[in-house]
Description:
By secondary structure, the protein is of the alpha/beta class. Helix content is 48%, strand content 17%.
Amino acid sequence: MSSHIVYSDKxxxxxxxxxxxxxxxxxxxxxxxxFPVNLELAEMLEDLAESLGVTPATIAVINGRxxxxxxxxxxxxxxxxxxxxxxxxxDIPLVIAGEGSGGTxxxxxxxxxxxxxxxxxxxxxxxxxxxxxEHSLDVSADLLExxxxxxxxxxxxxxxxxxxxxxxxxxxxxSVPVIGYKTDFCPHFFLGRSKYPVSVNALTVNDIxxxxxxxxxxxxxxxxxVVNPLKDEYCLSEQEFKEAYxxxxxxxxDNKITGNKLTPFLLQELNLNxxxxxxxxxxxxxxxxxxxxxxxxxxxx
Length: 301
């Protein structure tokens, strides 16, 4: 796989000298947010990590090469070009073989980060089991990859359009611990804390690092999901979300939008239906997750 990976000088230097690094996904740039918000966010998150003494490694596929650490022109390409691929793990060889470009999802970013030797990865929310997934089998590849890849994924929990109960059942079945950062209950992206308990409440970053290192010492394969709740004042209410989501889902059904195009479409419609509140919450939780991921990475060196 090394012949397909290009490291930025900063990321290569940090890895070789055992300095803290965090991975960042790029699907949020290519598909998740509109221009210029996506470009501004990507640059802000990288600057934030660097200000905290951590090297950011945003991951994407650019012109058929996996890039671990992006140049400014790469980020601009992801933020502005139309028709870029949304790359999950299954798509990586297809896009590389076709010399294509695209943003990597949680599944693809986790896989590549692990291969690159990066243990900590910050994202907004993970995919999961969609409503009715017990019948449709509409389950995000993020979950299976979490069970297979040795990464610590910091998020605000499964995205709010996901069935949280079924998603947590899936993670339990596949032995993925869900560690709440200062919370007993799993957050549901911009809906805040749910009624469903986490595996354990970690009160400090060192508690998370201790679990991470103990898991390594026991040679237990697979990842850890760290969930970091958004502050209550920035969360959407349950009623507000349900109404906005109903409208978004109806529009998706009317326009026959399915597969990997569904989640980005629903998130865009939710933003419209909540007058931008869902997008503001999304940006805030991404920032908070990067801060937490940086602390975990620094303390695990």
